[in-house]
Task: structure prediction
Amino acid sequence: MNEAEFERVISEKSSFSRLQIDNYKAVPADMKPQQKNMILNICRTVGYYIAYNEAEDSFEYNILAELSDRLAYEVQNHTYKNGLMVRKELEATNKFNLGENQAYVAFSEGLRGDIQRNSFRDKMKDYISYKESDNKWVRLLSLRLSEEDSRLRSYYDLLGADRIRALSCDEANLKREVEAISKEGAVEFALKKVLHTGQRITKAELKALIQQHYNRLGLKKTAKATDITKFGFDSKEVKIKEGGRYVNGVELFER
Result:
């Protein structure tokens, strides 16, 4: 609001206030209580320059209210003008991101999400977006979302953003992925009960052993000897004598 617009607003409020004061003086005595309540309600809701003098049962022009408005305008105007100068100086350093009101952006985004989110997929997409935002206030929205639905943080912590996106943020896909991870943990536990560091085993035997646990746990996977690296072991290729010949095998090193 420029100074001319501000003075126009002050003039309108002042004229209306004086009009209400004069009207109250002219109203008949039996109508004064009703008129008084109406004026007081106007003052409470709109903030005109009217003060009630209870001792004299009259309304007076409240010059302090007008001065308060003028002071507030002067302070805001001064702050705005100086803020522009400070902003230009900060931008000149190239060290500050002043491209947007970050708190307002976060508020707007939070409001948009509350209105538009209708499914788990929507919430998961927003959660990832908030977590990756450069705006610290938007990042806080991820905390709010995870408080509403703890599954979001659990999936994010376990699978990571890239894997969740690859699974289309679909909860059924995420559940299957987590279940597979849990079962793979069971495979690792079983393998570490029978395999140990320094052990040599043929690739065929290792493949068959891993496949056995896949089948037992219902994992629809075809085992490979190299899968052992998923279950807490490193391996080095070796030749193992079997009967009168050498076959491909590995030596295991538990991590």
In short: The chain has a mean pLDDT of 83. The radius of gyration is 37 Å. The beta strands are 50-53, 58-61, 200-202, 233-242, 245-254.
